[in-house]
Amino acid sequence: MRDESPPRLKAFRNSIPTPPGQSVPSPGQPAPPPVVSQPHDELSQAQPELSRAQPEPSQEPPQRAPAMEPSTDLRDGEAADNSSDLLASELNPTDCVETPVGAAPVEASNRHPLLQSLTLLLSMVIMLAVARFSVPSIVEEIRYAWHRGELRAEYETGSDGLKNVSLDSINRAYQMVTSAVGPSVVHIDVTRKATEQEKEVHRMLNSDLFSLSDQGSGVVVGAEGFILTNRHVIIDGESISVTLSDGRRRPAMVVGTDPLTDLAVLKIEATQLLPITWGDSDALRVGSPVWAVGSPFGLDRTVTFGILSGKHRMVRAGERNGSSGRYQDFMQSDVAVNPGNSGGPLVDARGTLVGINTAIVGDTYQGVSFSIPSNLSKQIYERILETGFVQRGYLGVSLEEVPDEMLIGDNTRVRGALVLGVARSESPAGNAGVQSGDIIRRANGEEVSDVGHLMRIVGNAHAGAVVDLGIRRDGEELELTVTLGNRPVTLDR
User: Fold this and answer.
1) How far apart are CA 193 and CA 212, in angstroms?
2) Mean of the pLDDT values across residues 132-145?
3) At the fourth CATH level, which superfamily is domain 393-492?
4) Cα dihedral angle (13, 14, 16, 19), rounded to 10 degrees?
5) Known catalytic residue at 342
6) What's the start-to-end Cα distance of the chain, in Å?
7) Of these residues, 89, 217, 342, 377, which one is catalytic?
8) pLDDT given for residue 443 in this prediction
9) What's the rounded Cα separation, in Å, for the pair 47 and 279?
10) Which sequence spans correspond to the domains of the chain?
11) Which residues pair with 263 in a beta bridge?
12) Whole-model pTM?
């Protein structure tokens, strides 16, 4: 049988009392010779030899002694005893070496916060990059989905509504519109002096007629005798007479005109007038049925029918009469309008005023006609009643359409207005800090679609009104507050 003393001594050496004068070896030193139970005399004789055989302590860092593996050729009982001895030796506190406080754990603890910060920063960069390329497409898809939903809802509503429409109801609607609007429409005759060129033509024709007569239409908008018509109908007139729907003729005086919108307000002395009801041109949708009533070629109370073909049109048809397309916001329709219809009303299916018929393309009707929206007409009418003229706000800048290379965003219909120059440093724009090269994108929170839109926003405001402008300058968004001035009269000529 093999000697089992060494492993048993190793496992239980702490439990054996250390004889006097004998030191316990530190971890890493060679194990002392096995101690065998002897009588006291023999133990005392062996003690000096153990003391002399013990080496000097090593200066190297202590190392953990490797665990002794049990012998594989032991019998079952002996293997179990050796396993328990080895387990006891592994758990012996004297064999466990505490890890000294070194630099390595401190460096690991210092690296962890920096690594976490770098990881967080990298994650944020990746998220921003993903958002930069994915969010615009997602927003665009949502917008298109919303629009498609609106179109589908309109389609379903229109399909259901057409099932309940009858020709008899449409016929009655036409008749009721004519009955409601007809009493408010008037015929206007204007006598004016002939120009020198016209007089020369009459002399060549041996004619004695040196005065000319023009005609047009109008609509009663006030029970006190106020009539709204086009400025080009009554301009340069020596005398103006109005024929009412009941056949009465009354002379008319001019209350005021507005060259930029080609509108004029007349006043007659008459009672028992039936003014038309104002409608909401902004609420009128493209495709809605509309009626035009007027006196084409002197044929009074002529009614024509069509649909609203478009809105927010800018045309130059009225500029020869002094109007400005920049301040006009025409509605387009296919209603038959001819010379003599100018100044007459455009009404909706409720018989309310939604526009003033003003211009056509060419000298005769060619399928396209234009009218001034009722909301703009009402503003001009009320201002003329207050002051006799239209006082517009003045910004004091020179504007130009934003070119494609300077367009901000993907919506080409909302471009803004490019400032080419400022009139002077004391102008409203100069005082507010507007500079050349600025792109005006918003006015009072409303997105500016083009130059004409901005001019209408400013022009519709009174002098002294405060307007908040959203400016794009050198890639930065700025907010400026402008106190509008009074538009110089020379600019309206």
Assistant:
1) 6
2) 79
3) PDZ domain (2.30.42.10)
4) 100
5) yes
6) 131
7) 342
8) 92
9) 124
10) 114-165, 166-390, 393-492
11) 230, 258
12) 0.61
**Same topology between domain 166-390 and domain 393-492:** no
Which structure tokens are listed for 299?
Answer: 């044929």
What is the per-residue burial (b if ≥16 Cβ within 10 Å, else e) of 405-440? eeeeeeeeebbbbbbeebbeeebbbbbbebbeebbb
Q: How confident is the model at residue 209 (pLDDT cuts 50, 70, 90)?
A: low
pLDDT tens per residue across span 269-304: 998 899 999 999 999 999 999 999 998 887 877 899
Residue 11 — pLDDT band, cuts 50, 70, 90? very low
The position carrying tokens 């519109």 is 177
Angle at 470 between CA 465 and CA 472, to 5 degrees: 145
φ/ψ region of 220 (left if φ > 0, alpha if ψ in -120 to 50, else beta) reads beta
Q: Please, which pLDDT band fits residue 134 given cuts at 50, 70 and 90?
A: confident
Strands of 180-238, DSSP E = 185-193, 211-222, 226-230
Residue in 85, 187, 232, 323 annotated catalytic: 232
Q: Encode 239-273 in three state secondary structure.
A: EEEEECCCCCEEECEEEEEECCCCEEEEECCCCCC
CA-wise closest residue to 248 among 186, 189, 196: 186
Q: 85, 214, 258, 262: which is the annotated catalytic residue? A: 262
State whether the Cα torsion 85-88-94-100 is positive or negative: positive
Q: Residue 182 in 3-state DSSP?
A: helix
Contact 266, 240 (CB under 8 A): yes
Rounded (10°) angle between helices 76-90 and 5-12: 30
Strand partners, 456: none
Q: Which residues, including other chains, have CB under 8 Å from residue 314's CB and lie 6 or more apart?
A: 325, 326, 328, 329, 330, 452
Among all chains, which residue has been given the structure tokens 């030899």?
49
- Look at residue 303 and give its three-state secondary structure: strand
d(CA 83, CA 358): 112
Tell me 21's DSSP state: T
Name 38's Cβ contacts closer than 8 Å, sequence gap at least 6.
Answer: 46
- The domain 166-390 is placed in CATH, from the list 3.40.50.1820, 2.30.30.30, 2.40.10.120, 3.90.105.10, at 2.40.10.120
In SS3 terms, 41-57 reads as HHHHHHHHHHHHHCCCC
State the sign of the Cα–Cα–Cα–Cα dihedral 131, 132, 133, 134. positive
